[in-house]
């Protein structure tokens, strides 16, 4: 069996804790026409606890592309921040004020007090666990409220 030339050998370039990060790196390399592939992706996807034991999701490239790949992956991109603009979406928390104390220390999430209406009560009994509605919660005065559309 003839051996491969050193520049055609496949090498392990980097490891990632989750498949999403690995695919982002793979996409960045493929956008620069550097062929690459992932291993252990399905194993880590099945159970995240397998990741440390197997070395995570591994990114492989050819030996001749290592320096270019390292240069491409060296710079991290800044993640986009989520801002909501549609009326149906939840607005950013700095736009919402508590109607009781006018505080901006407000978050949107599962309600802490009983928010059952009849359909949710019936569905909760059928499913066997409580379904809570989502409301705004003021961390200053502990008031929970629904935001009225203006």
TrEMBL record:
Domain of life from the UniProt record: Bacteria
Family annotation (Pfam families): DUF2007 (PF09413)
DUF2007 domain: residues covered: 15-74
Family annotation (InterPro entries): DUF2007, N-reg_PII-like_a/b
Protein name listed in UniProt: DUF2007 domain-containing protein
Source organism (scientific name): Hymenobacter elongatus
